[in-house]
Every structure is written in C-alpha cells, then in structure tokens.
Structure prediction request, 337 residues.
Amino acid sequence: MYQLFFTPAWFNGFDLVFDIIGLVIALLIAAYSWRVYRISGENKFAYFSFAFLLLAGGLLFKSFTHSVLYFTPLRDSVTEVLKPALGSKLKFSDLYYRAAFFLQMALMLGGWLLIFFISQKSRQRLTKYYEVSQMALFLYLILLISIVANFNYFVFYLTSAVILGMTVLNYYKNYLNTSRNENAFRVMMSFIFILIGNLFFIFVFIFESFYVFGEVFMLIGFLLLLSAYSKAKKGKKNK
Amino acid sequence: MSTTKRRSRLELIYDILLSIQNKGGVIKPTHLMYKSNLSHKLLNSYLDELLGKELVIIEEIQHKKRQSPSKVIKLTDKGSGFLAEFRRMREFTDAFGL
Prediction:
C-alpha cells in the first residue's frame, strides 16, 4: 500500500484529532471572513475566506486518507470482501491514495499561497491582470509540485515552508505597521509555528518522531490563529 | 509625495458612522462632510447607501430663529450595532493584515 512516509505507530490517531482541530479553526476563520466580505463587498475578504476553505479541504483529505491507513482491521476486511470481485484490480488502490495525497497537497499549497498573496501589502492586489496571471502561473506550479511530491513527499513540505516563510515576513511587517497590535503578533506567531511544523515534516525521512513535533507545532499554530480570531471577534471597546 | 493612505470603502463607512456617534448620534450634513473628510458628492452616495440599509435616518429640525427647517443625520440603533460590528471587523482585518 502506498504511504507518503512512515509515522510513529503510537501517534496514529492523535494526528487525526490535531488535524480536525485545525480544520475547524480554518472553517471558523473562513466563515467570519466571508461574513466580512458580505458586509464590506471587498474581494480580498472573499479570497481570504477561500484560502482558509482550501486549507480546511487539505486537512480534510489528510485526515480521511490517514484514517483509512490507520484503521487496518477495517481496511483488511474491506479488501477481503472486495477481493473475489476485483481480484488483481485491487492493486489500483494505490491510485486512490495518490489521488487523495495529490488533493491534500494541492489544496494546502493553494491555501498557503493565497494567504501569502493577500498578506502582500500592495494596492489593488489580486485585481490587476498581471497579478491574476501570476497566480495562474503559481497554480500551475502547485499542481506540478503536488504531482512530484507524491514521489518525493518533502518537495511539498519544502514548498510550503518557503511560502510560509515569506508569509511570516509579511505578517511581521503587518505587526509593525499596526503599531505592534497584539492580535497581529498572535497571527505572526501562529504562522511561525506552522512554518516550524512544516520544517519538521521535511525531515521525517531522517527521524520518524519529527512527524509528532511537526503535528504539535501545527496544532499550536492553529490554536494561536483561533486565539487571534476570538480576540478580534470580541473587539476593542474603546477605539 | 503624499503619505496619506487611501481609505477603503469599509473604512469610509466606519468613519462616517463614527463621526455621527462622536457627535452624540446626531450631526448636520455639512459637519459630517468635514468630519469624515469627504466630498459632497461622495458623502451623498455613501449616505444613500446608509439610508437604504437603515443605519442612519434624516430628520428635519425646526429652529426658533430660522423659518425653514434644517436637516440632521441621526444614527439608528441598527447603525450603532453596525459600528460595533465594524470595530470587530477592523480588529480582524488588522490582525490578519487584510
């Protein structure tokens, strides 16, 4: 059976819980951003909402494929039932995993990239033709990377780390531009944690336990995003 | 070179509503124009939108000294609620660099 990389067996299941928490947080931010878009009518909020939907989609596919991989008894019994009917065709199940991993990677990379674009402080971003064409080129590269990463998984995490690194820089600028706003700091820190998480994932092939560190850092990152979101939703009373 | 930042549509609406609230919920149109730093034409177009959404209302006030009544713009309860929502949205946009 095809697997991206091997993870510590004792951690199987915990990562699913972590990813589902991340998924819920991403959906909350997407929903609120959509609400802001409905009120303001500004496209950047719709793009931001879409970016977090892509992340949620990526995490959903990740959780789904990993849960099928982890629950061996269920998988084996399904295989036993299907064997008489499908016979040798069962070997094509690899295609299913590759397709699922491809979708997971394409959606996650698309989400990170869109957040990076939105965090760029250029005027009329995402409206000019050249920016749209730039995005189309990046989308092509994302699809390409997602295919290649099915054979060399670290390409996906390396690309994510590069995009996240640039996003962290943008959020550092945003933190300074907002007169060191507490929430802007939280958002910057959350992306730093997510970046560290992705850096750990790159080196899982050296040390399996790096997967655990990666998942923990990702979870902290998403929890910080949740904290920034909930603080923002409460709002400042005197402004 | 000017260093002033162009306000977004959201910020303009926020500034208009905040100007009215800072004046105790009632303001004269000319005062609002100066406070929100908008042209007459632009302010009217935004006011039409705010009136349509029932965030503000226009009332006529009769003065003792003047014969003709003057118009004032009043912030509605819905407008006050909207202003609170705007503050939360601003906090969200600041935090996420939007």
User: Anything to note?
Assistant: The radius of gyration of chain B is 15 Å. Chain B touches chain A at residues 6, 8-10, 84-85, 87-98 (CB under 8 Å).
